[in-house]
Write a structure and sequence with these properties.
The chain is mainly alpha-helical and 185 residues long. The protein is elongated and about 65 Å long. The mean pLDDT is 94. The protein is built from 10 helices and no strands. Helix 4 packs antiparallel against helix 6, helix 4 packs parallel to helix 8 and helix 9 runs antiparallel to helix 10.
């Protein structure tokens, strides 16, 4: 947590843990494997739940999707907020200390999922005879990145959970209204 994955030496890790290097290798094959043991469950939960929310939305009848825009995603983000706060250390490691690991791309992966889901939603709107205004892909990426980074700011700054719930509600309302406006809906 102090030095991040990249700067933390195995020598210091075992020293601070009070074990020998040999004992360490009895449990883990590498520093990477140790980091994975610390954060993988939280990462997998985050990514799986986020994917499920998009899939759940896409499985709605297309006529219902415009009315549900933002609602399922807010439910997902509320669930993730509770989970994130219950696993704060793991998410601090992922968000602040994971450079040099596959976990460093978590937010980028979520942004990619969001942008892909947005493109699929444009097709639904077309099918409904309500095509969205053309939105530059760079802007889509910027907006999705801003939304997810704003979400994780609550974690990084350890906002009290009750404040974070209010903040998340406002954040979801802001982004849903903004997306609807620029899509011309």
């Amino acid at each position: 947590m102090e030095k991040g994955f990249k700067s933390a030496s195995l020598r210091n890790i075992v020293k601070n843990a009070g074990v020998t290097t040999g004992a360490f290798y009895g449990y883990y094959d590498s520093k990477e494997e140790l980091f994975e043991a610390l954060v993988d469950e939280a990462y997998e939960y985050m990514m799986t739940r986020y994917r499920q929310a998009h899939e759940q939305f896409e499985h709605l009848p297309i006529q219902e999707q415009p009315n549900q825009m933002g609602k399922l995603s807010q439910e997902c983000m509320n669930d993730l907020l509770i989970y994130t706060y219950e696993h704060m250390e793991e998410f601090h490691l992922i968000l602040r200390c994971s450079e040099g690991t596959k976990y460093a791309r978590m937010v980028d992966e979520m942004v990619e999922l969001e942008v892909q889901a947005t493109h699929r939603y444009y097709k639904v709107l077309e099918q409904l005879g309500r095509p969205a205004a053309k939105i530059d892909e760079r802007l889509e990426h910027i907006l999705a990145t801003g939304m997810l980074n704003a979400y994780f700011e609550m974690v990084l700054h350890e906002m009290p959970i009750e404040d974070a719930k209010v903040y998340l509600q406002e954040l979801c309302e802001f982004y849903t209204a903004g997306w609807l406006k620029i899509m011309g809906q």
